[in-house]
Amino acid sequence: MNRTIATITERLEGRAPRAALVLGSGLGALVDEVVDAVRIPYADLPVFPKSGVTGHAGELVAGDLEGSPILMLAGRSHYYEHGNAAAMRPVLEVLAGIGIDQLLLTNAAGSLDAEMAPGSVMLITDHINFSGANPLFGEPTDRRFVGMTEAYDPAMRAAFEAAAKASGTPLHKGVYMWFSGPSFETPAEIRMARVFGANAVGMSTVPEVILARFLGLRAAACSVVTNYAAGMTGNELSHQETKEMAPLGGQRLATILKRIFADRLLDD
Predict the structure, then answer these.
(1) Less packed terminus of the chain by CB within 10 Å, N or C?
(2) What's the pLDDT tens digit per position in 257-267?
(3) Exactly one of 107, 120, 204, 223 is catalytic; which is it?
């Protein structure tokens, strides 16, 4: 852990970003807009994941986005890859160790709302952990009893809404339900999710939000809608569809993110 922190600190050469952005499917190209970029392959960072998901590059990129400092994580580890909900804990501990205090998360998700079509962007206001797993399983201290009433930081959510409005980018809001994956949900599960109050379903983000709150990081998250959920169209779902559709919503989310940093909406 300390070795990884030291490696990143040395490679950053004095840069001190406070915000880190985890890039989900469809946002990989955003790293190319980072100015004065420092790129560190995950292979050079012992505790960082070796993602086995196509479309996840596996590198840390630091520099300026629209004039503001940022650190980007191009690639994450998913629960369905290994059955370890805490796989991203070492990564987030490293981020906290180098001074990050704001975590922005993005993902690809399926929509449960007919008016939230593929290509839409949804700001996550709350989540439902349907997987039954938790990244704090086994944590020996009372710190494991993390409050989640405001898991998604209100001020950071307001920044997303302000940036969307200023840039003229449509932004939906809703509840994200985490399924373990890697298989997609069944139509019956989607009907249940709708009854429970979910607006979108996906296979990531929730463990990272729980870990962020555990580590004292403020968190916000957005979903890029890549498809309607199972049973809504009669079509079968596939990861190929996710990869093909993610860039459409990814462009919209990138517009919002760039406006957040251009207008310094995350500054205290």
Answers:
(1) C
(2) 999 999 999 98
(3) 204
